[in-house]
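Q: what does this look like with S-adenosylmethionine bound?
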Amino acid sequence: MDPRDTAVLLPQPSGDQGGNGSFDCAEESAHYAFSVQLLLTQYAALVPWQTEGVAELGSGDARAIAHVVRAVPGLTVHGTDISAASVERARRTIDDLGVGDRYTVELGDFFAWADSPEGARTSTVIANPPYIPAPDGDILMPELWGGWYGNDLVLRLLKAGFDHLLVALPSYSDPAATLAAAGELGYRVANFLAMGLEFGAYSSEPKVAEHIARLTAEGHGWAGEGSYVVAVALLTRSPEAPRDRSTELLRALQLSV
Ligand SMILES: C[S@@+](CC[C@H](N)C(=O)[O-])C[C@H]1O[C@@H](n2cnc3c(N)ncnc32)[C@H](O)[C@@H]1O
């Protein structure tokens, strides 16, 4: 399909950021959704989503990707989320949008699913993964903890053996280390969409904001005055990827290369 024939309806904020047990950041989810949609359609010859479907790490309340599934004929998504409140909401969203035949969300750890026979048959993963850097997981929504540098889950994803990852990479979660690991594992950056975001409820939590300030001062990423940049990138191990845009991606994330 032509990427111009698609339209993502942006999720509306619930007005209850951080308090309802599931992730809620309308701008971030919309950017993730829009980017996944554009990258999948634009790179349909490289990424076999039309024949295999895709898996999703961390569906949240599913408002982001349910709209993409509705807009993109032939796309099927198997999502996993570790938060019971999120899965309950996700199932409601999917029912309301009438995409239950092509989007399912199961409760559990994505990496356990990845080790299953179904996981082994899937080569593409989409994710706006937990990426909040903090000294420990005692934060506003513990499921969003990404370890000390914020990139623990994306590093696990890179090592899990999938050929294609469409994944959100924030500027403050040591993206240079993430991309260096990706390169060593044979991934190239086919393309990406980057957007500036304000710190939301999760990044502004004082314990998190202080940690981000420390990490970025030590050179493990970038953040401005209450703002950062997120890029959703297509990382692929396909030899057919026409080029590697890692350097452009790092520059878009405000890192010197
Ligand atoms: C940043 S939110 C993204 C939600 C949604 N994809 C969106 O963009 O609106 C990350 C989600 O990952 C989930 N999560 C965290 N660790 C997980 C794991 N090991 N397996 C599956 N989901 C996980 C969290 O519960 C959370 O809902």
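Residues 22-252 form a domain with the Rossmann fold fold (CATH 3.40.50.150). The chain has one domain: 22-252.
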